[in-house]
Write a structure and sequence with these properties.
Layout: H1 2-11, E1 15-19, H2 21-31, E2 38-42, H3 49-58, H4 64-73, H5 77-84, H6 99-111, H7 114-124, E3 130-133, E4 140-146, E5 151-155, H8 159-162, E6 167-173, H9 181-189, E7 192-195, H10 200-208, H11 211-219, E8 223-227, H12 242-263, E9 281-285, E10 313-317, H13 330-345
Parallel strand pairs: 1-2, 1-7, 2-3, 7-8, 8-9, 9-10
Antiparallel strand pairs: 4-5, 4-6
Helix pairs in contact: 2-4, 2-13, 4-5, 6-7, 9-11, 11-12
Length: 346
């Protein structure tokens, strides 16, 4: 029985997904039906709500995005989601906290480390895959925002979209956190690396700003796909096109590539860009038959490009949720992604 299981695992593609928030869990819900060889690499920059409070009071890495991933990869997804997302409405010290956050926090206390807590939580709950932090360091996400005549600096992941100003760049403090080694190994061994969907500046880029993570993606022989959001996000990507999303990733990862080279003792020659884009492929929605309702007018559909892109290939597919057309449909998304991967792998 073990031999058959191992054979099955080896025959299934090794997929690494990168991100955070609800977008990552949407993708995981669909992917788990195609392979058990899933590794989620998750941001630790979250500082809002229950996660932020636990982080400040107990010094633990923020558990919220990991909680979402555990629920998404669980066998009994519906029940686990209800349980892990259950939020206490009252009670001294409990109000506002979700059960899943407290579960992971308690597991970290019992096992002695956050990474061991994730492993044991996954084992006990029999999730279909592995969940890893991009770094174990206590990082803070910061941003420089365009105020017109001047630049405003903002600290904290939750404060960035609240400012409702165009984002010039985001960066980490400390600026060179060490990547979690198992995350690097997963990237180097992957058959397919996927970033997104999810908040561009506050869920995806915090992982890519860890220079060793970006370097491992660039070095990996895997197929690399960025899943662009179906709609813009207020305070982050207002009025963004697909090209704007891609160029934001390129601008930020070019900078961290330079940091990596300097740390490795390499010299920088002028403003030389790395060869190729970080992600060779961009998956974008092309089904615009379900317009965003007037009640959500602060959102805009990210339209498919009118012309061929330079340096990367756009995969156009129907991946939108028909009822909530500002979100991805997890079944459609997984079907389209894995159908495309099967085609190019042959």
């Amino acid at each position: 029985m073990n031999t058959a299981l191992n054979k099955q695992d080896h025959s299934e593609p090794k997929i690494v997904v990168i991100g955070g928030g609800t977008g990552l869990s949407v993708l995981l819900r669909g992917l788990k039906h195609y392979t058990k060889n899933i590794t989620a690499i998750v941001t630790v920059a979250d500082d809002g709500g229950s996660s932020g409070k636990l982080r400040r009071e107990l010094g633990i890495l923020p558990p919220g995005d990991f909680r979402n991933c555990i629920a998404a990869l669980a066998n009994d997804e519906d029940l686990m989601t209800q349980l892990f997302q259950y939020r206490f409405r009252d009670g001294s010290g409990l109000e506002g906290h979700s059960f899943g956050n407290l579960f992971i926090t308690a597991m970290a206390e019992v096992t002695g480390s956050f990474e061991e807590a994730l492993y044991e939580s996954g084992r006990i709950l029999q999730i279909q895959g592995a969940i890893l932090p991009s770094t174990l360091e206590d990082i803070k996400l910061c941003a420089e925002l365009d105020e017109g005549s001047q630049t405003r600096k903002v600290q904290g992941e939750s404060a960035i979209p609240e400012a409702m100003l165009p984002i010039e760049r985001v960066y980490l403090q400390p600026d060179e956190p060490q990547a979690f080694p198992p995350a690097l190994q997963a990237l180097l061994n992957a058959d397919l690396i996927v970033a997104g969907p999810g908040s561009l500046y506050t869920s995806i880029l915090p992982n890519l700003l860890v220079s060793e993570i970006a370097h491992a993606i660039r070095t990996s022989q895997a197929k690399k796909v960025y899943i662009c959001n179906v709609a813009t996000q207020p305070g982050e990507t207002d009025n963004y096109t697909l090209e704007d999303h891609v160029q934001a990733i390129e601008a930020h990862t070019h900078f961290v590539d330079d940091i990596y080279k300097l740390n490795e003792g390499e010299s920088l020659t002028g403003n030389q860009l790395p060869k190729g884009y970080l992600f060779d492929f961009v998956l974008a929605n092309n089904n615009l038959d379900f317009p965003i309702p007037d009640s959500m007018s602060h959102l805009q559909a990210v339209l498919p490009p009118h012309a061929n892109s330079q340096g990367y290939t756009v995969i156009l597919a129907d991946v939108v949720d028909n009822m909530y057309p500002w979100r991805h449909d997890f079944v459609k998304l997984a079907n389209q992604l894995m159908g495309w991967y099967k085609t190019i792998r042959q």
